[in-house]
Amino acid sequence: EQLSLLSRYRSLATTQQDGSFVSILVTHENPGLPPMIISLRAETEGLMPPLRYHWSLGNGTEWDGVEPPTQSYAPGHYNVVLTVTDTSGQVKKASVAIDSKSHGCGF
Fold first, then answer.
1. This prediction's pTM
2. Which residues of 46-68 are buried (b: 16+ CB within 10 A; e: fewer)?
3. Which residues lie below 8 Å from residue 95, measured CB to CB, with a gap of 6+?
């Protein structure tokens, strides 16, 4: 029997005066177990399509699109930044910190 661990959370989304926002949906597929396996997805509201998405995934990887491939994070601290640009040139950003911890066994 296999136990599946899953944890989800969203980055804070600051709604602008015009009602628009950008946030990051984070799915942590193995909470508490290094390396952290993370899925990310952009969520937007109130921006004029088509939208361009650019991710800086904090581990040296850059990605363009709504949903980057699943990422593996070794123990350490990572800052993920999402930049969304709409057809009018309006730019919105969201970020989330990922803190991957080791087992702490001293090896």
1. 0.82
2. ebeeebebbbbbbbeeebeeeeb
3. 11, 24, 79, 80, 81, 82
Closest by Cα among 47, 28, 51 to 99: 28
Residue 107's pLDDT band (cuts 50, 70, 90)? very low
Tell me how far apart the alpha carbons of residues 1 and 29 are, in angstroms, rounded to a whole number.
17
79, pLDDT greater than 70: yes
In tens, the pLDDT along 11-49 reads 655 556 778 889 999 888 776 667 888 999 999 999 999
Residue type, 71: Q
Long-range Cβ contact pairs of 64-72 (< 8 A, separation 24 or more) = 66/41, 66/42, 67/39, 67/40, 67/41, 67/42, 68/40, 70/29, 70/37, 70/38, 70/39, 71/37, 71/38, 71/39, 71/40, 72/35, 72/36, 72/37, 72/38
